[in-house]
Queue: 2 jobs
Job 1
Amino acid sequence: MKKNTCHQSALDVALLQYDSVAEKLDIEPGIRETLRHPQFAVEVAFPVKMDDGTVKVFKGYRVIHNNARGPGKGGVRYHPDVTFDEVKALSMWMTWKCAVVGLPFGGAKGGVTCNPLEMSKGEIERLTRRFTSEISNVIGPTTDIPGPDVFTNPQVMAWMMDTYSTQKGELTPGVVTGKPIPLGGSLGRNSATAKGVVICIREAVKELGLSLNNLKIAVQGYGNVGLNAVSMLHDYGCKIVGVTDIMGGVYCENGLDPKALTNQLEKTGSIEGTPGTDDLSNEDLFGLDCDVLIPAAIGNQITQDNAETIKAKIIAEGANGPTTPEADKILCDKGVMIIPDVLANAGGVTVSYFEWVQNLMRYYWSEEEVHERLERIMTESFTAVLGAAKEKGTSLRAAAYNLAILRVSEAMKLRGISS
Ligand code: GLU
């Protein structure tokens, strides 16, 4: 997978995307400028005892970009490339994402610079508990609610919830989302991001007059989003022609079998070498002859270096920030329909919102109820963004930003400036 080596940081990209839309909007200059900066940002350094008895110091971050529409909401990422600036960018994207789908949340994000793939379960638990303690005055069910992101999972969320609850002296399930079901997790949360991606693809396919049957799909990333999206799209009758993960990739002209991919992943830790498939590199994945490309890994993957080679008609951004502004322009000029991250992957945070609501009510919904509500929010949001894009003659990304920035700035204006 391409490393984030491009000179343009995620924060540069987030600001460019924001500025390009905000400068055309009729919003107060003070509000416009405020939204360029995170409202609150902490950097912490903390020691963790490793299995070999040594002590390692890790850096962690939590950033609330904006809370005008509600408490901060956003995942915690464990990855070697995590930086303070990246977390700031990701928190800004969360503000727009929550606003695009109309959730009563602001945007936040957290991260720890570490490589969980090289750590034991015990080390990850100790890191999680210490990080949670360090940020326990920031997070809370009415202030800032973490959730899962790259390389964090329900178990990590359970440790966060337990550490926070122990410190506060009361069980507080609403402090994090994406928890295991027995601890107040929501049914349907695990597959929610992929479900949202698939709903957006289904609606885009309708709009372009295509059919899901035999639609050729290429997916970068076989984590929570990639794996579930592949399986759902396969069930819809689509043909998954190529998939890559962090170690390698697989190709099959006649369509890959999701069960075989998952078996291989469980056996070897990668989908690479799945029987009956040919090897596929990341660069070749982007150039594949396909209808839909789903970048579902990390940011900065579709750049000006590979945008020209992309043949897909639709790109659904399962990851956050996978497309640089230069690549975005090249692809828009080619007529590719890009469903932006702030819309395409909003299904995850939407069901996180449902989880939080259920935790506060202490009343839990059936999986059907969750799916029905997710379906409605995603379809309506897609329709609203598409309608705005058509009306103004812009890309879906510009339309989504337009909608989100107006919603957030309206809330800020109504609240006024407290002194
Ligand atoms: N990490 C996911 C995102 O980027 C979900 C965050 C959450 O559920 O809080 O949208």
Note: The chain is about 45% helix and 15% strand.
Job 2
Amino acid sequence: MRSHYCGQLNETQVDQTVTLCGWVHRRRDHGGVIFLDMRDRDGIAQVVVDPDTAEAFANADRARGEYVLRIVGRIRLRPEGTQNPNMPTGMIEVLAKEVEVLNTAATPPFQLDEHGKVGEEVRLKHRYIDLRRPEMIEKLRLRSRISHSVRAFLEGQGFLDIETPILTRATPEGARDYLVPSRTHPGSFFALPQSPQLFKQLLMVSGFDRYYQIAKCFRDEDLRADRQPEFTQIDIEASFVEEEDIMAITETMVRQLFQEVLDVELPEFPRMPYADAMSRFGSDKPDLRIPLELTDVDDLMKDVDFKVFSGPANADEGRVAALKVKGGASLSRKEIDDYTRFVGIYGARGLAWIKVNERAKGLEGLQSPIVKFMEGVVEQLLDRVGAEDGDIIFFGADKARIVNEALGALRVRLGEDLDLYTADWAPLWVIDFPMFEEDGSARLQALHHPFTAPSCDVETLKSQPASALSRAYDMVLNGTELGGGSIRIHDLSMQQSVLEVLGIGEAEAREKFGFLLDALQYGAPPHGGLAFGLDRLVMLMSGAKTIREVIAFPKTQSAACLLTEAPGEVSAEQLRELNIRLRPKAKGEAAGE
Ligand code: ASP
């Protein structure tokens, strides 16, 4: 039906006759001449309809915003003075010969260029209209280019695209499963995959050697910021590899991707052990664009007459750390109060600070509610953090976990508020993760997942599990974890030992992933892999603020789809077929609780 997209027109095509199909973006009546801004996924072109072409004019006259039109017309240069250099098609216009109304449109719930005036809910409810906005089209186009580039790279490297099941058993990635009742097996449920982890490992046992998949994953997580219950991974696995191989392949892939799609040459990817990342940045995904670091000051604070500091400084699990911000002495009381509230979100009970007004004046030159307790150590402290006039030093003192989370988050927030960024892109690899973490109970949890290989042997793992490191690696970019993976366990006795340390007994292990344990007996090769979060990657590359902006039909923070109104109730008939009886709702209980 069409010869050109609107956005493809330019002054080299003057006098050509073209056929456009698209939507009326704007319609203006200029004393007998009608101007239509016609829009399609490629852009906008101005169409002029004059009364001489009577039928075309009548149709243009009845067209309204978002009507679907087909236009046949001749391209001509816009008259001098009416050109619009800010618009890609701004030098030309199309003089219409034919205007056909392909469909009418009701008044849309919001004007595309006024989308900011309506809440995100309205945009999500009418997502098909929201997706007409050029910014949204641009993001989805970028997404398509990114997945195309990734596929082309991996195919070129001999990776095979293999699909794995969506109706399956639980795969342990640490979140809650989405369950699907089985009609043919009453009382039994499928789980939607949290990742293709176990299947990709089975493919390695089969000998497929190099696998990838752009895979949907499902995790029923609590409403944490910017997560989606279903999201997309670029999932990769290979056999006969070590950490270096997977890291090299995926680093090259990401480098090429940035080069191809954004024309950006990423800098070196430094490697940082997890322990360093936590101690220097309070985070296992440090944003290295921000030149602020945490400094340990426990040793200085052990004997100060200030329990808030001396307590954690002397406790095994405690930490006292300082965060110096160059030039930060100009922060106002109100700003500091805001930051104090902010770190409170992460469990910090306060935010101590020292402003360094004039170092030469000694204590006199410092301004701080706490410095009086530190007289004996203050010079050492200032030297250690390299304080200069005009700086502020913030402190965190608590359990190490709280200090890391609070100061880690404050560091990122200060970077943003004070625009401290020193680079556009700062990638790195975080390595040497602990195998396990404590989950508050006596039980250990796998930090990555239970199939990650430890860097030690079975005996060491069993005798000192808390200090065992894993062969896992995360790729981090600008403070976001782009992807994570590991070398896997391919040896049955090691797998059993890890499950044992996790407190997963033999019966439970058999019940949950007996099929993997079986497969490990039949010649499992050494293997490893990694999975990237495609949504986050696209978000970073497109500069979007949330992953919802780079997903065509996202869910809300409460895991619902406003467009289709999913999840929805089902008929009594369907429930009966599934052998499910719903518990009557208790009084005052909301649906879904
Ligand atoms: N399956 C892991 C995840 O989804 C990634 C991997 O280890 O390859 O986090």
Note: The CA atoms of residues 419 and 538 lie 23 Å apart.
